[in-house]
Amino acid sequence: MASLQDQLRGLVYSTEHGDTCPDCRQPIADCRCAEAAEEDRLASLDGIVRLRRETKGRKGKGVTLVEGVPLKADELKVLAKELKKRCGTGGALKDGVIEIQGDQREVLKGELEKRGYKVKLAGG
Ligand SMILES: [Zn+2]
Question: What are phi and psi of 10, to 5 degrees?
Answer without folding.
Answer: -60, -40
